[in-house]
Amino acid sequence: MKKHNFSAGPCILPEEVLQKASDAVVNFNNDNLSLIEISHRSKPFVDVIERGRSLVLELLNLNKTEYTALFLHGGASTQFLMVAYNFLNKKAGYLNTGTWSSKAIKEAKLFGELIEVASSKDNSFNSIPKDYTVPTDIDYFHCTSNNTIYGTQMKAFPEVKVPLICDMSSDIFSRELNFSKFDLIYAGAQKNMGPAGTTLVVVKNELLNNITREVPSMLSYKTHIERDSMFNTPSVFSVYVSTLTLEWLHELGGIPFIEKVNTKKADLLYGEIDRNPLFKGNVVTKDRSIMNATFTLNNTDLQEKFNAMWKEADINGINGHRSVGGYRASMYNALPLYSVQALVDVMQELERTA
Ligand SMILES: *Cc1c(COP(=O)(O)O)cnc(C)c1O
User: Fold this and answer.
1) Counting CB atoms within 10 angstroms of each CB, which of 91, 160, 200, 354 has the fewest?
2) Is the CB of 75 inside a 6 Å radius of any atom of ligand 1?
3) Whether residue 242 sits in one domain with residue 259
4) Whose C-alpha lies nearest to ligand 1, atom 3?
5) Which residues share a beta bridge with 5?
6) Å from CA of 75 to ligand 1 middle
7) Low-confidence ranges of the chain (pLDDT < 50)
């Protein structure tokens, strides 16, 4: 049986998606050719990427005349600089909620003035800043919806009069939001959408009017939009598997359905973290992420025993990020509820036998 996979990224994917993907690597579309050895401009692959792009907008409930979905290269990390290269003309505002926000800030500084509108750095990033005002004289406001490493998540987004740009790498397609509030959303595929190798960008077409700088072709949103996300060879395998995962989600009932499942999983695990006297959660309760739950053992002497127990229970990937320590259970869309139950069972067993 497959392990209970709480990996923070690359993430667990649905079994049926993995099966279809492995079939396609050998024989795609019953055409006796592999998916990864045919032209990306052949009709079978163009159909895949177009289906993927249209599913993205449908699942996010975005109008396809207003927004464009792109599958790009370079991970979310390339978006840190691409956003600024295209849209930072004078100054931009950033919310600093953790490692990934800090990296986005570092890159953006190369292109103009940067205002850190608020930061939770002084609280070791264990909460989301709340009382701040977004300036009105900035080119855009950038935030990170879910902080994969620390386990915090923005439950509300500020009302802004400037373009709103969001790194949704680790919670895209996990919960209902009014996505039309955002002017640009990006996400590395490997957290909640597919395998590593492609990056989803959803951009409001209107935002392109704000570009004043000459941008190299590969880093220009305009180029990729004009070429239907085919300016150069896309990561065909990653785009295919992402499209299969989006199809899987669509058939299940889309974001409204999966949000209910995700909430159930998070409630189950946080319930145990709060109930079990051996454990404590790392972050402020109201800012807890439904995707990445971070927690520690109160008594580190139990660490060895606990580690042996969860490994014995076929659990994978709950060690905390190397910069934080402790534990992190990532409960992305494809993780079944019974896997969370398996972890909870181990936590209770530890309490009984400690
Ligand atoms: C993982 C992650 C990134 C970096 O993604 P890459 O695709 O590896 O560049 C950026 N932002 C967030 C929120 C992440 O979780």
Assistant:
1) 354
2) yes
3) no
4) 76
5) 316
6) 7
7) none
Domain final residue, candidates 200, 226, 252: 252
Catalytic residue numbers, as ranges: 100, 167, 191
Please indicate, yes or no, whether residues 58 and 174 belong to a single structural domain of this protein: yes
Q: Is 186 in the pocket of ligand 1 (CB under 6 A)?
A: no
Which residue carries 């392109």 as its tokens?
A: 208
State the pLDDT at residue 1. Answer: 86
Residue with CA closest to ligand 1 atom 7: 75
Give the burial string for 79-111 (b: 16+ CB within 10 Å, else e).
bbbbbbbbbbbebbbbbbbbbbbbbbbebbeeb
pTM: 0.98
CA distances from 93 to 223, 303, 319 (A): 25, 41, 33
198 lines ligand 1 (CB under 6 A): no
Q: Of 203, 231, 252, which residue sits at a domain end?
A: 252
Tell me the longest C-alpha to C-alpha distance in the chain.
64
Task: Please indicate, yes or no, whether residues 20 and 142 belong to a single structural domain of this protein.
Answer: yes
* Same domain membership, residue 261 and residue 182: no
DSSP 143-188: EESEETTTTEE-SS----SS-EEEE-TTTTTSS---GGG-SEEEEE
State if residue 272 touches ligand 1 by the CB under 6 angstroms criterion: no
Range of the structural domain that residue 45 is part of: 15-252
Going by alpha carbons, the residue nearest to atom 12 of ligand 1 is 169
Is residue 244 domain-shared with residue 303, that is, in the same domain?
Answer: no
